[in-house]
């Protein structure tokens, strides 16, 4: 198999321009690298992406020689990135693939086979599908036409109907000698560059073939695609098509296809005008005027307008009156469409916006010095929002913080903290008027996010189990969930806080919204780097942990496929097997209520049930080791650099029912945080043999910490407050991992406090 190094020349070079797609890039690269046909290289061009795309490319290149990264020192645009990739490519064929799209299974094999059958044409046309965030898949309109082509080889003049294919460069493969050596095709600046390139290459090629095999999965991003961002850049379409007609003018033999290409041009103008995500209302009249001018400029003699609605639009465009055009288009709306739009507006406002009190407060100005905090569906003062709140009191004392709590959580609010009960009159006031909104879950659907407000989503864990729209594939996780409403809630985020690059990538992809990722670390984890030995001992005393005992914190997560808490360990046997030198702290998931079995074991002195203990960080600080399964607590506990044991007796069931992003039992660096067990006997053996605290466990933990304890260094809350409340650059900078000092482990504290024995020489002096 030829490799992408030395003088090797692969059959296919896949050119991938890369910019701000860190949530999708791995899927793109994996879809290429996992192809059954292996004679390829990937030329991936980092267009000076401001996120972690460049690092991801280098990571893949270090693992596979076929990945050839190119890094621009400044942003030059997708066209220049493709040009650089084409020049770098060494394959017989060039396939352009956008970095948020993927290759379908068997794509490269199908391409290679069709190239061989058709004797290496200049261009091979490819089939594709559109994929949507809700897992809908839509076939391309060209599928039947591609099937009809069979193994024929033709030119665009012989088969002009193939000029009607979706005009993008990624649904065709180019012979490199034709594309680079013979004609030196290059992209023009700006968007809509695909259309010009497609038509120029199609009209130049002497041999064109096709395959109906679905090769590309064209991702319809809900947000974030540059083509779906409105603005003046879309006016660049006129310059691109002016270049096309100049190209035609210079080649009289192409006159037979001028009318077809003119119709395609006018249709593209009207399509762009109609899209609210491209042309904003205030620019529509001007865009229409330029469209009309270009229509008249390039209209071929004897052009016959198409029949039906499209022909009517063409005639209105030629008349040049935007007022008339807009009136006709508005009149064409059906009653059903009007009702749908009205319903959408009402939904966007939120049903509670019709509540008289809330509407009143929404008319009042936003209070620039008011912040609202909530955590775990209003369960109390906790997690990342709590750490941000306390740091804001220190660094931004002018900002008054108010917590939202449920009625039954009022007693848990610490003295001195201002709070409101959810859905109370004051609740509606602070929700309407607060400048800042901080939560580790979503606010309810009826919350109206005002443009002046800033919403920080802190999250409350690192994703091992699949989240967001990825849950659609797993019935146990998706039951009773509206993903449309979930994304509408996430649309209200302005900032999304992460503690590692893994989370950044996952959140961006599974919540396809317009927020900005802020990689500052989790504020709740600051305590793990700021707690002293005396604090650790104090917490242990408060929990009743005797000196010299090894404390094990057991934190299983919730099972979506089970109802209620189901013990996965015979805790009585486990404690008996470990012996009196160990004490087990058991903390069930907060979704569960009190469990009588745990209460009974605690009454007998076998365990300590800490399920209702208010501060989980204290429990972690007190523990010598953690046992968990798939809970995100493992990522937080890794900050402490103490032993973590993964107990996953239902791994296969959980993986299939809930979905996971990596194999926590694999033993691979960065995936497994320490020793593992899949049965109760194995778990007991892990502790009795000392494997829980072995050198191998420490090596695994080190790799795990390198991947996931990335931005947690004790200063996360300060970075958040400086950015959110003070409008400053986040500081201090994240400390390198080897320069951070976690809170000392209980065993280390005990060793440090053992009085030193006198040396032998001093003993003689005292004799």
From TrEMBL:
Residues 13-178 form the Glycosyltransferase 2-like domain. One of its GO terms (cellular component) is plasma membrane. It is found in: Cell membrane. One of its GO terms (biological process) is teichoic acid biosynthetic process. Pfam families: Glycos_transf_2 (PF00535), Glyphos_transf (PF04464). It is a peripheral membrane protein. This is Glycosyl transferase. Transmembrane segments: none annotated. Keywords: Cell membrane, Membrane, Teichoic acid biosynthesis, Transferase. PANTHER family: TEICHOIC ACID GLYCEROL-PHOSPHATE PRIMASE (PTHR37316), TEICHOIC ACID GLYCEROL-PHOSPHATE TRANSFERASE (PTHR37316:SF3). Belongs to the CDP-glycerol glycerophosphotransferase family. GO terms for molecular function: CDP-glycerol glycerophosphotransferase activity.
């Amino acid at each position: 198999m030829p490799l992408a190094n030395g003088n090797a020349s692969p059959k296919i070079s896949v050119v991938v321009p890369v910019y701000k797609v860190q949530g999708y890039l791995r899927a793109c690269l994996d879809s290429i690298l996992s192809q059954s046909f292996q004679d390829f290289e990937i030329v991936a061009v980092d267009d000076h992406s401001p996120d972690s795309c460049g690092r991801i490319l280098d990571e893949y290149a270090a693992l596979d020689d076929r990945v050839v990264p190119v890094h621009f020192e400044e942003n030059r645009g997708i066209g220049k990135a493709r040009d650089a990739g084409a020049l770098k490519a060494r394959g017989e064929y060039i396939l352009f693939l956008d970095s948020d799209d993927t290759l379908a299974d068997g794509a490269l094999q199908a391409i290679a086979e069709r190239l061989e059958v058709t004797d290496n044409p200049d261009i091979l046309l490819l089939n594709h599908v559109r994929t949507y965030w809700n897992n809908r898949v839509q076939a391309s309109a060209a599928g039947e036409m591609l099937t009809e082509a069979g193994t024929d080889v033709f030119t665009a003049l012989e088969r002009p109907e193939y000029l009607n294919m979706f005009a993008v460069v990624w649904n065709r493969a180019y012979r490199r000698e034709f594309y680079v050596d013979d004609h030196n095709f290059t992209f023009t600046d700006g968007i809509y560059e695909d259309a010009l390139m497609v038509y120029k290459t199609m009209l130049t090629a002497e041999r064109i073939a096709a395959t109906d095999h679905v090769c590309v999965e064209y991702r319809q991003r809900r947000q974030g695609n540059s083509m779906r961002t409105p603005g003046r850049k879309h006016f660049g379409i006129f310059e691109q098509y002016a270049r096309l007609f100049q190209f035609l003018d210079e080649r009289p033999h192409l006159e037979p296809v001028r009318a077809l290409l003119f119709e395609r041009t006018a249709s593209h103008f009207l399509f762009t005008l109609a899209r609210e995500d491209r042309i904003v209302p205030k620019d529509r009249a001007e865009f229409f005027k330029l469209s009309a001018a270009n229509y008249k400029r390039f209209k071929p003699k004897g052009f016959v307008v198409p029949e039906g609605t499209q022909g009517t639009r063409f005639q209105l465009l030629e008349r040049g009156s935007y007022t008339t055009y807009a009136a006709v288009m508005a009149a064409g709306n059906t009653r059903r469409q009007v009702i749908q739009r009205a319903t959408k507006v009402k939904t966007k406002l939120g049903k509670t916006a019709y509540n008289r009190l809330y509407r009143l407060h929404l008319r009042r100005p936003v209070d620039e010095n008011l912040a609202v905090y909530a955590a775990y569906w209003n369960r109390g003062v906790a997690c990342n929002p709590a750490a941000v709140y306390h740091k804001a009191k220190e660094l931004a004392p002018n900002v008054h913080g108010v917590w939202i709590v449920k009625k039954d959580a009022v007693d848990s609010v610490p003295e001195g903290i201002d709070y409101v009960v959810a859905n109370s009159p004051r609740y509606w006031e602070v929700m309407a008027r607060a400048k800042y909104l901080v939560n580790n879950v979503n606010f309810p659907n009826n919350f109206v996010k005002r443009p002046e407000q800033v919403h920080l989503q802190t999250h409350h864990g690192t994703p091992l189990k699949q989240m967001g729209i990825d849950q659609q594939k797993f019935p146990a996780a998706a039951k009773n969930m509206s993903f449309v409403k979930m994304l509408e809630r996430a649309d209200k985020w302005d900032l999304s806080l992460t503690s590692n690059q893994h989370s950044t990538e996952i959140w961006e992809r599974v919540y396809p919204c317009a927020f900005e990722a802020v990689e500052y670390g989790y504020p709740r984890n600051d305590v793990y780097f700021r707690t002293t030995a005396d604090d650790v001992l104090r917490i242990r005393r408060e929990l009743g942990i005797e000196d010299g005992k090894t404390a094990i914190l057991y934190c299983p997560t919730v099972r979506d496929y089970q109802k209620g808490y189901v013990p996965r360990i015979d805790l009585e046997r486990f404690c008996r097997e470990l012996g009196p030198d160990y004490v087990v702290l058991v903390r069930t998931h907060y979704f569960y209520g009190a469990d009588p079995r745990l209460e009974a074991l605690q009454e007998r002195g076998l365990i300590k049930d800490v399920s209702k203990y208010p501060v989980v960080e204290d429990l972690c600080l007190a523990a010598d080791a953690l046992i968990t399964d798939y809970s995100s607590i493992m990522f937080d506990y890794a900050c402490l650099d103490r032993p973590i044991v993964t107990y996953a007796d239902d791994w296969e069931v959980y993986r299939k029912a809930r979905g996971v992003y990596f194999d926590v039992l694999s033993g691979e660096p960065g995936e497994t945080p320490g020793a593992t067990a899949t049965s109760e006997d194995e778990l007991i053996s892990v502790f009795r043999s000392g494997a829980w605290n072995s050198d191998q466990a420490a090596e695994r933990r080190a790799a795990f910490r390198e991947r996931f304890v990335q931005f947690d260094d004790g200063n996360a809350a300060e970075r958040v407050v400086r950015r959110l409340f003070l409008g400053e650059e986040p500081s201090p900078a994240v400390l390198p991992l080897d320069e951070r000092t976690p809170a000392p482990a209980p065993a280390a504290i005990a060793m440090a406090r053992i009085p030193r024995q006198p040396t032998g020489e001093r003993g003689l002096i005292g004799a």
